[in-house]
Amino acid sequence: MPDSAKRPLWIALAALASAALALWGASSLTWVDVPAGTVFHGELREEISGSDLVTWPVPLALLALAAMAATLALRGVARRVLGIVLVAVAVWVTVLVLDGSAYDVDLSTRAPGYDAMPGEPTKTWLGPGAALVAAALYAFAGAVLAWRGHRMPRMGAKYSAPGEQKERRRSGNPDADLWNALSEGEDPTTRDR
């Protein structure tokens, strides 16, 4: 198969891997800078990360990795459906980030010695920005799969279920036929000739 036919597959896989990294990063990056002396969940904090505020970045990063495996295993219409699902996930991540409900936290508790509120918590766009980049990568991978998924190469027949393997033509070379049979999990000495 020419490299130009494989390129969309590698592009989709790279976008999904990058989306997983971006979501993992979003969970550990700062989402809110808080004033000195703020207590959050019983700890004195200066910043609040994505994993402190929301639970979805890491599971969605794992979903991106699972989508990579599914991209390799599926073919035809199933790949196109996977692409549509990935675009829907991208829209969902975008809504979750831009909704603003992640920032609804009570930061009114002050540590002893910090009675006066020195300032207000400030939202940062570093963590949410990483999540939005992941959403864009999800959408891009989904669009590539929906558009070109049916034309992308798939895993070879030796990785398919036994019922899906087609009878291969014999090449005329007995040695090559024996090796092909072994590669497909058959015992070449017991098959009909």
TrEMBL record:
<dbReference type="InterPro" id="IPR019051">
    <property type="entry name" value="Trp_biosyn_TM_oprn/chp"/>
</dbReference>
<feature type="region of interest" description="Disordered">
    <location>
        <begin position="157"/>
        <end position="193"/>
    </location>
</feature>
<feature type="transmembrane region" description="Helical">
    <location>
        <begin position="125"/>
        <end position="147"/>
    </location>
</feature>
<dbReference type="Pfam" id="PF09534">
    <property type="entry name" value="Trp_oprn_chp"/>
</dbReference>
<feature type="transmembrane region" description="Helical">
    <location>
        <begin position="56"/>
        <end position="74"/>
    </location>
</feature>
<keyword id="KW-1133">Transmembrane helix</keyword>
<keyword id="KW-0472">Membrane</keyword>
<feature type="transmembrane region" description="Helical">
    <location>
        <begin position="81"/>
        <end position="105"/>
    </location>
</feature>
<protein>
    <submittedName>
        <fullName>Tryptophan-associated transmembrane protein (Trp_oprn_chp)</fullName>
    </submittedName>
</protein>
<keyword id="KW-0812">Transmembrane</keyword>
